Amino acid sequence: xxxxxxxxxxxxxxWELSGERRRARNTAAASENKIHDDEVARRYGFGGxxxxxxxxxxxxxxxxxxxxxxxxxxHGSATIALVKPVYEGEEVRLGGRVTAMAxxxxxxxxxxxxxxxxxxxxxxxxxxxxxxWGEPRATEPWPAFARRDLPSRRREERPPLSAATAPVGExxxxxxxxxxxxxxxxxxxxIEEGQPLFRAASPFGGxxxxxGWYLHAANRVLSENFALGLWIxxxxxxxxxxxxxxxxxxxxxxxxxxxFEKRGHEYVTADVLIVDGDERPVARVLHTAIVVVAARA
Length: 297
Known about the structure:
Elements: E1 20-23, H1 38-43, H2 53-68, H3 70-75, E2 77-82, E3 91-103, E4 108-117, E5 123-133, E6 171-178, H4 181-190, H5 196-199, H6 213-223, E7 232-240, E8 249-262, E9 265-275, E10 281-292
Antiparallel strand pairs: 1-3, 2-5, 2-7, 3-4, 4-5, 6-8, 7-10, 8-9, 9-10
């Protein structure tokens, strides 16, 4: 089975790929983050509870995997900026355009710009995508913040988080994720994903972890280490480091690298390493979120 789903010699910069439409679902309506609750979100000027940014990205990642093939899910990269809210039930349009292309089926590279548009045509998220093939893969250095000796933080021990209190540069306790069949199926059902690549088997062996899950995991590195109030995921940069097979237990290590204020909101950026049950790095995420939402004027 080929691991790229396109003919590199048929793509040119400026060409738009065939898009896809998805019906958005608020997969976090019952979460402790009440920005996903209709009533609370409206108090802050939104039209209703926000569809999680990680879910919007998961829709985009599903489309990218279909458009580019399993190799992108295993070794590609992407950025996503969540610029406008997506709401429950909206039909969003996923799309992308080639910005650079080089090589052939044996060796090459591809870059795209991509987006999520709302039913009104307004852009809700923008991003970039990159993929190389036919070249040796570099080994990801083990970051100093990924401390195997730190115990996970108990829920009742979570401190509050703001730009002023963020422990910038300090290793965060690791977060443990189940990645057995039941956990994988729950996630895929939530995002309504049916590709056999994620459900049954892949060219790399068993089913792959869905690349959208990496941003869900990065969210949990924050929410399981800090007692957050209302908070909003705003941007991520993710690199897929190896084929991640859906089995066993995964871990997320992290550290906050920046904390700042902008337009009354308080933000943090976290560097997150996700590893599989063999402690093999499978993804690296630079993850930014508003952790204190400005009061509505």
